């Protein structure tokens, strides 16, 4: 009798536990989403040793997607470091933000049914999600980095597509013998030239450095000036150079976020382009937006998007909406803090390493008041603009290559090959390796310095037209730096980003 | 004692039932995907009376997305038919396939974590998913509609982007004073002209109807001929017209699927373009692919994709992979059967209605042997190419408008306004309304016919240069039809698809 009573008690307790377990999530059980959700969670649980990741659409081996390893790691679970591999600081791929999204997987996941938004258009006949348009305006209001009131917004396939849509929209079409002259200030993002030359339109032509046209001598005709602020490659906040009724400007504000720069005030320009890539890190989603004052320009850009790709995919717009909600709705604007802290730490470490060097210098930028963070802060640009100071180091990237590092040659930006752009936005693995290799290069430099004093190697000299760059020092007193860049012919070749 | 024993028995039985219930799905419970999955299932359960749908990124009212109603339906749950609304048969939006994807929600859903493929590139440095490339090849092998062995594949933002990428890649760049002449056979898809003129490249120029150049008189210079097969708007299978070493062809095979046409053999052309829109119905995903023989052309198109949008979004590529798996892996190729049956039923109904008409006629196409279905079958084109037969009905779309129907004016395709393209690929609601309205128009015609005999209205006359179109009759003996189309100036204005 006592035994049966005990058994009954245990069975009832077990029932209670099973009920609680079943309904601890409010009783909801997935139905048609179950298969897809299980597959996603299964793939996410594949261990790649923290040096890679498996994806749902990865190559399949033994029935599951393989680990796709970060550069310099290998093996089936990315646990093997490959010591001979190159520290690749060429591409501006913003993988530094990936850990934030891994942490917030639950909030940032989307489920896309097979029937989601199949139609060519939204119900209002447009190609743009009104919810996403509104979210972008909320984003800029929260960050305070751009005016959107009374402006039009166009979505595009990254800033990449919007840049040439804007150039097209702003170019004179009434003067077939006088195409608009497209200019940018050296050093500038190479794609401006490459794109414009590749599409070879009758309406516009890439003419090179803005400074050639800043003295009135060549200023006949229409101009389209590309202004990148913060600039790529050197991180400086920039303003338009040319003025006048025949000048139209495109402001490429890809990096105008607290991750990379103080935000002194909301940008308020005629045509401003932003990209998701540099904000959330989702370069692979190919999403950007343009904020436009003039309605006629807006209509032309809409037409461009219609005839070019008929808009931006619906699954991308859904995903971006979710990502931007996470970006501004998590308490304390955590994504921006994460981005800024990561970049700030990287600059601190890099500056400390470079402070020991006479052979190399990196750019210095003044602190400014930031309205987002409500304090005076230093820029933390996406790239280091490295300069080889020694006379004989004319090809700086070659110097780096000899120590298994590669960056992007300065000549591609219209500057000298004495400069190299180093990407600081890649994954933690990439940055750690870059820092180690630069550290080794700097410490070898100090071994060489004895040879210099003994006359074996030439002294570091001031090169005629350059002011010596102020060096990074430990007291963090940042002097302003003025650099002049000679106009170089760009190598027109295909660049990976 | 007996009571306690009975209670114990019941409790143990309940234990077993609860265990079975908990683990009936293999014991798996969603963790980080739960929130997103619950949200998706909640939105899917919103009832829109079968005449609309709610989406995850729709406008929010009372805390949930609103129903987005099919045209001609309104009210908060799309239950109100709006009798005055226009039956819109203008756009080729392939919503007829939506019911298939609703039925197969579980298999066609994707879950996209916030960290999915953030990088600009895949691990091999490319912008294309190797798994998706392989799946496309499997698709064409399963359907037998295109040769892919030994060919290169480029992804693009719909056929829209690939068409101008192909025109760019095939155009001569060595002769700035002699741009390539881009031609297409009337009636042709208006976007060919609109795109080419809008981008206004120095490398190519739209020159109009192919037939102008088919006699050797104007055949100097390089030509790029666009061949659409089945043709848009009339559904005919077409071949290239021009021949010779200075001619390059682009085959737009958007409709070369069993839904719309017999597939006599795998297409085996130098450059073939397909779009997801017309295959699965996902026009909003902006995904197409080109199959290319020549490696140099392939590289130029890759460069175009790089400088234009830097590839196609990763979430789109993931989704397309899933959709194409469903397309060919469900038993009996159900998606293709569903597509064909739907189009076949619609043509049967439309033909029956039009068989009663003398005022209007629709195109007739010969049956052909189909290798996919292994039988002789009639074409079931995406569009009816409607002709107004009466002398006075020069503006056929105006005739339709008077009965609350609208199609796409034939002049936009380079034909006369006596022709109208009617879309047969939209939703069931759209087709049902079109059929009803056409039926009313035809029955009113029979009321008018008395007036004609009495001399009130002019007789139907044979127009000089046109052969009377063979009419659809109930015996389904399909005679071949030869039509000649005069070259008309296209109205260059923005078209919704």
TrEMBL record, chains A, B:
<dbReference type="InterPro" id="IPR050478">
    <property type="entry name" value="Ethylene_sulfur-biosynth"/>
</dbReference>
<feature type="domain" description="Alliinase C-terminal">
    <location>
        <begin position="87"/>
        <end position="440"/>
    </location>
</feature>
<keyword id="KW-0808">Transferase</keyword>
<keyword id="KW-0663">Pyridoxal phosphate</keyword>
<dbReference type="InterPro" id="IPR015422">
    <property type="entry name" value="PyrdxlP-dep_Trfase_small"/>
</dbReference>
<dbReference type="Pfam" id="PF04863">
    <property type="entry name" value="EGF_alliinase"/>
</dbReference>
<dbReference type="InterPro" id="IPR015421">
    <property type="entry name" value="PyrdxlP-dep_Trfase_major"/>
</dbReference>
<dbReference type="Pfam" id="PF04864">
    <property type="entry name" value="Alliinase_C"/>
</dbReference>
<dbReference type="InterPro" id="IPR015424">
    <property type="entry name" value="PyrdxlP-dep_Trfase"/>
</dbReference>
<keyword id="KW-0732">Signal</keyword>
<comment type="similarity">
    <text>Belongs to the alliinase family.</text>
</comment>
<keyword id="KW-0032">Aminotransferase</keyword>
<dbReference type="InterPro" id="IPR006947">
    <property type="entry name" value="EGF_alliinase"/>
</dbReference>
<feature type="signal peptide">
    <location>
        <begin position="1"/>
        <end position="22"/>
    </location>
</feature>
<dbReference type="InterPro" id="IPR006948">
    <property type="entry name" value="Alliinase_C"/>
</dbReference>
<dbReference type="InterPro" id="IPR037029">
    <property type="entry name" value="Alliinase_N_sf"/>
</dbReference>
<protein>
    <recommendedName>
        <fullName>Tryptophan aminotransferase-related protein 4</fullName>
    </recommendedName>
</protein>
<feature type="domain" description="Alliinase EGF-like">
    <location>
        <begin position="31"/>
        <end position="85"/>
    </location>
</feature>
């Amino acid at each position: 009798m006592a035994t049966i009573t005990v058994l009954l008690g245990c069975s009832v307790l077990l029932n209670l536990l099973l009920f609680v377990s079943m309904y601890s999530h409010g009783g909801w059980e997935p139905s048609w989403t179950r298969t897809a959700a299980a597959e996603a969670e299964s793939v996410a649980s594949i261990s790649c040793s923290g040096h890679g990741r498996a994806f749902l659409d990865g190559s399949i081996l033994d029935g599951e997607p393989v680990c796709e390893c970060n550069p310099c790691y290998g093996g089936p679970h990315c646990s093997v470091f490959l010591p001979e591999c190159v520290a690749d600081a060429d591409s501006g791929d913003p993988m530094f933000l990936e850990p934030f999204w891994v942490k917030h997987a639950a909030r940032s996941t989307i489920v896309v049914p097979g029937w989601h938004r199949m139609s060519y258009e939204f119900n209002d006949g447009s190609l743009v999600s009104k919810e996403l348009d509104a979210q972008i305006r909320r984003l800029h209001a929260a960050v305070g980095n751009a005016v959107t009131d009374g402006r039009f917004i166009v979505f595009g396939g990254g800033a990449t597509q919007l840049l040439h849509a804007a150039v097209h929209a702003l170019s004179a079409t009434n003067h077939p013998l006088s195409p608009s002259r497209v200019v940018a200030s050296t050093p500038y993002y190479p794609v401006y030239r490459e794109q414009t030359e590749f599409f070879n339109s009758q309406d516009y032509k890439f003419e090179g450095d803005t400074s050639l046209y800043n003295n009135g001598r060549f200023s006949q005709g229409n101009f389209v000036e590309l202004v990148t602020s913060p600039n790529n490659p050197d991180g400086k906040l920039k303003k338009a150079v040319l003025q006048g009724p025949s000048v139209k400007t495109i402001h490429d504000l890809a990096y105008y976020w607290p991750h990379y720069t103080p935000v002194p005030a909301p940008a308020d320009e005629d045509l401003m382009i932003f990209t998701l890539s540099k904000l959330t890190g989702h370069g692979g989603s190919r999403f950007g937006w343009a904020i436009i004052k003039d309605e006629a320009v807006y209509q032309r850009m809409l037409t461009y998007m219609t005839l070019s790709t008929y808009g931006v995919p619906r699954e991308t717009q859904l995903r971006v909406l979710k990502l931007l909600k996470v970006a501004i709705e998590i308490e304390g604007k955590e994504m921006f803090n994460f981005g800024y802290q990561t970049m700030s730490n990287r600059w601190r470490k890099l500056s400390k390493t470079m402070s020991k060097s006479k052979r190399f210098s990196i750019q210095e930028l003044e602190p400014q008041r930031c309205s987002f963070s409500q304090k005076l802060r230093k820029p933390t640009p996406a790239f280091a603009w490295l300069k080889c100071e020694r006379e004989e180091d004319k090809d700086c990237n070659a110097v780096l290559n000899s120590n298994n590092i590669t960056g992007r040659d300065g000549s591609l930006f219209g500057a000298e090959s004495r400069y190299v752009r180093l990407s600081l936005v890649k994954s933690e693995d990439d940055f750690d390796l870059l820092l180690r290799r630069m550290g080794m290069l700097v410490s070898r430099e100090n071994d060489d310095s004895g040879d210099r004093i003994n006359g074996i190697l030439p002294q570091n000299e001031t090169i005629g037209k350059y002011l010596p760059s102020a060096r990074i020092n430990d007291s963090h007193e940042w002097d302003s730096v003025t650099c002049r860049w000679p106009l170089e012919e760009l190598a027109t070749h295909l660049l990976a980003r």
